[in-house]
Amino acid sequence: MKVLVTGSAGHLGEGLARTLKEAGNEVVGLDIRKSPFTTHVGSISDRGFVRFCLRGVQTVLHTATLHKPHVATHSRQEFIDTNITGTLGLLEEAVTASVEAFVFTSTTSVFGDALVPPAEAPAVWVTEDLTPVPKNIYGVTKAAAEDLCQLFYRDYGLCCIVLRTSRFFPEEDDDREIREAYADQNLKANEYLFRRVDLEDAVRAHLLAAERAPAIGFGRYIISATTPFSPDDLPDLRADAPRSVRRHVPQYEAAYERRGWKMLPSIDRVYVNEQARRELDWKPQYDFKYIIDCLESGSDLRSPLARVTGSKGYHAPVSSEGPYPVGVSAADAATHE
Fold first, then answer.
1. What is the average per-residue pLDDT within 170-178?
2. What does pTM read for this prediction?
3. 253 pLDDT higher than 50
């Protein structure tokens, strides 16, 4: 099978390209940056370039995007050019090339303000039925690109699957207060309860989506680690998250205590992957219980694929605030508009 992977120099793109090549597939890696897994250097906004890359391709895995960390360094127009116009051109050329399956990597960030419950309210149980309320240009453009995928399935029969992925980046959190409050691995371990997925599980979801796209036609799926919680836990999660975690994974306390780690006092949302597990036959391996087992055995918390892929970053320069230019003021950011 010949597969086009956009964003092949990125974290997910490389994970997909590695896995596909190891399985004997022909991979066309498209990215604006050179990398060991990029075969064609150029922009998805270049229609002629995209048309060339799609020759003979049966499946498109579209991971290329401007991400949330780019909001401080790129203009809204740049987000539209890449995330919307670039996706539109790729969809149009995919139709012309008779592509059989198109998988679009979206994000749980499309939910935006729908993830923020009112004060004293329970945590939000986030399924595909929750209506997105994007809160920044990143979320707006990803939501619009999702709708383009649906439009191309309806109008042209292009089988499109949208995967709303939760956090899988290995970089530190972009919130300085959070970085200062928690050790990086401690925070990531906590997130497996409600908003993180391992790279290997994310890659597996994409490959299953491509395989099942012709039978499904169009679908949107949340891709996140399987949570131990149920809707009955939502009030406790908001008011006293450690109590809820103790109820489901009591062994976490001793594992955390040995490392001086701490649980989040409150959790405001839980991403639910039930629909992806049911309709894609996705069986994510890496969840909070797996993480605790790793802590008890002294094993690496990351999957083998996540370890070999490593960190890619989002910006070439490293700012004083860490891996993201989060110290950019609103006035400075406005100069990028």
1. 88
2. 0.92
3. yes
Whether 142 and 106 have beta carbons less than 8 Å apart is answered as: yes
Q: What would the pLDDT profile of 195-204 be if each residue is shown by its tens digit?
A: 999 999 999 9
pLDDT (tens digit per residue) in 6-43: 999 999 999 999 999 999 999 999 999 999 999 999 99
Q: For residue 251, how many other CB atoms are within 10 A of its CB?
A: 13
Report CA torsion sign: 160, 166, 172, 176: positive
Mean pLDDT of 284-297: 98
At position 305, the amino acid (one-letter code) is L
Q: Which two tokens stand for residue 148?
A: 């383009």
What the chain holds in terms of domains, given with CATH numbers, is 2-312 (3.40.50.720)
| Whole-number percent of the chain with pLDDT over 70 | 92
Extract the tokens encoding 114. Answer: 């729908």
Q: Is 246 left (phi over 0), alpha (psi -120 to 50) or beta?
A: alpha
d(CA 172, CA 178): 10
Three-state secondary structure string covering the chain: CEEEEECCCCHHHHHHHHHHHHCCCEEEEEECCCCCCCCEECCCCCHHHHHHHCCCCCEEEECCCCCHHHHHCCCHHHHHHHHHHHHHHHHHHHHHCCCCEEEEEEEHHHHEHHHCCCCCCCCEEECCCCCCECCCHHHHHHHHHHHHHHHHHHHHCCCEEEEEECECCCCCCCCHHHHHHCCHHHHHHHHCCCCECCHHHHHHHHHHHHHHHHHHCEEEEEECCCCCCCHHHHHHHHHCHHHHHHHHCCCHHHHHHHHCCCCCCCCCEEECCHHHHHHCCCCCCCCHHHHHHHHHHCCCCCCHHHHHHCCCCCCCCCECCECCCCCCCHHHHHCCC
- Please tell me the distance from the alpha carbon of residue 259 to that of residue 237, in angstroms, as a whole number: 23
| Average pLDDT taken over every residue of the chain | 92
